[in-house]
Amino acid sequence: AVSGRAPERLATGPTAPAAPAPFAAVGGDCPAADDPEGGPAFEVIYLLEAGDEAVQRLRARLDALGDSLVVVGGDGLWNVHVHVDDAGAAVEAGVEAGRPYRIRITHFAADRLHARPEPAQRAVVVVVPGDGLGGLCAEAGATTVLARPGEPPASGELVDAIRRAHAREVVLLPNDGDLRHTAAAAAEQARAEGIRVALIPTRAAVQGIAALAVHEAGRSFDEDVVAMTAAAGATRYAELAVAERQSWTMAGICQTGDILGLIDGDVAVIGQDVPETARSVLDRMLAAGGELVTLVLGEDIPDALAETLEEHVREGYLAVDTVVYRGGHQCAPLLIGVE
To answer: Each residue of 1-56: pLDDT tens digit?
Structure first.
């Protein structure tokens, strides 16, 4: 479970998440089965590479085919979601507009044949960057969506997770600033299906952990959302990354292979090794105060680094606690949160 107290260190073994293979374009007609509840029989979701003018034509085409149309994105990449009776026509419209991929078609009538239990009152859906954090959040009762390196979840995956949570009220934690439009589209679609959704714009996994730690299903939805939002907002976040090429940054010029310390999304420290850079990042963050440091280790980072950083905090900053989690297979070698 997630709490503000130091837990036993997680020792989850890393497992490589399988990368989804692109779906082939679907052609032809998909006949709709009788739907006892009315409405279109299929949900169609895909990512689309296309220009703005082609997307405008696509919107008009899909709007004529069905309802619950959501098209969000920009810069040539779009999330497309629609409910239709002719799934093949919806995909063909995407092919005419550009290159659709990661196509998902769900037959509503088939799902409705299976009786489901009464929904829970409230649930939390969390996007996590590693399988270790996925296990941690699942233990705390959250429904998780794994963000694969270089392949962020589409709005359809977030909608699926909200449905899997099977609750009347859902708090959505995207844990990535780049997912704000995708998460907003997913929340809008879930609301159209009668689910009350609150989107808390968490920008990092450590902010999601802080929000989940104060989640209480027993209080009112609004009070819970306010408390979780406050906890996330009070958590400053940082991560360590490896420079892939020479580049200008806010901290100066970095070279290929340098260790970059990013605080709140901006490069603040350029170092030569992980321990040195991590200590510098912690010092900068704790200079503004703090009571709790959260460290999330990547799969290739040894436990000795956590012990070194815990000692650094203990010796340099009185009354500041440190908790350590194993993130598993994730992009960043180290994530840092300061509350």
So the answer is: 455 444 444 333 443 333 333 333 333 444 444 444 567 888 899 999 999 999 99
CATH fold for domain 42-112: Alpha-Beta Plaits (3.30.70)
The Cα-based distances of 179 to 115, 205, 288, 293 in angstroms read 33, 12, 28, 25
Q: Write b or e for each residue in 60-98: b if 16 or more Cβ atoms lie within 10 A of its Cβ, otherwise e.
A: ebbeebbeebbbebeeeebbbbbbbbbbbbbbbbbeebb
Picking from 133, 119, 172, the residue whose alpha carbon sits closest to that of residue 14 is 133
Lowest mean pLDDT among 29-43, 62-76, 205-219, 278-292: 29-43
Please give the Cα distance from 138 to 248 (Å, whole number). 39
Region 139-144: what's the mean pLDDT? Answer: 93
State which CATH number among 3.90.550.10, 3.40.1390.10, 3.30.70.240, 3.30.1180.10 fits the domain covering 236-338: 3.30.1180.10
Task: Tell whether pTM > 0.85.
Answer: no
